[in-house]
Amino acid sequence: NPAGYAMMTGSVSAQINNTSFNDQRLQRSGDSVSSSQWGFAVSPEHWGFSIAYYSPQTESGTYVSPNTGDTVKSEVSLKELRFTVARAFFGDELSIGVAFEIAKAVRELDEAASNAFGSSVQLGALYRLPNHVLIGASFSPEVNVGPSGHPDSQTVIPGFNRAVIRPALATLGTGWIPNRFFKL
Question: Which residues of 106-140 are buried (b: 16+ CB within 10 A; e: fewer)?
Fold first, then answer.
């Protein structure tokens, strides 16, 4: 929720993480499915600003072409660069935030790349209730990063250069922050 940056308990924060897992049902090649992100935020009084890189899921693997029989290494992912601004109002009881996103759809077969760019926004709001309880909502519209500007002329895996879609997402949640050391 982009509104959270204006209600952070610290004035400067940073985060880096990377998660990988193996699931033969998703990746028959045995390659891992990974997710990563990093970010930096500053929260001067009543405000919040951040820049973050987010790759929600990267799928890659080695496949055999049904047309040529050749082995090909592939990757499909959506990578996002987010710029967020948030502002708290009414004695920091209400926070409104917006994140501007640049999305890159990655579609790579060996050395050939059919990458494309798109943009989107994410909107959010948080309200502070008594006893350090927060209630929040956010919305992200669908992002559809179409095929690259060049037609897909490769024959190894026909139809590989398709749109990468992140579905619309609406969230509603609660949180509890009793002190600066604990968040739930």
Answer: bbbbeeeebbbebebebbbbbebeeeeebebebeb
Biggest alpha carbon distance in the chain? 65
End-to-end CA distance of the chain: 14
Is residue 156 within 8 A of residue 62, CB to CB? The reply is: no
pTM of the model: 0.76
CB neighbours of residue 142 within 10 Å: 10
Residues contacting 4, CB < 8 A, separation 6+: 48, 86, 95, 97, 124, 126, 136
- What burial class does residue 14 get, using C-beta atoms within 10 Å of its C-beta: 0-12 exposed, 13-18 middle, 19+ buried? exposed
Tell me the pLDDT tens digit for each residue of 131-173: 889 999 999 999 888 776 565 566 777 777 778 888 999 999 9
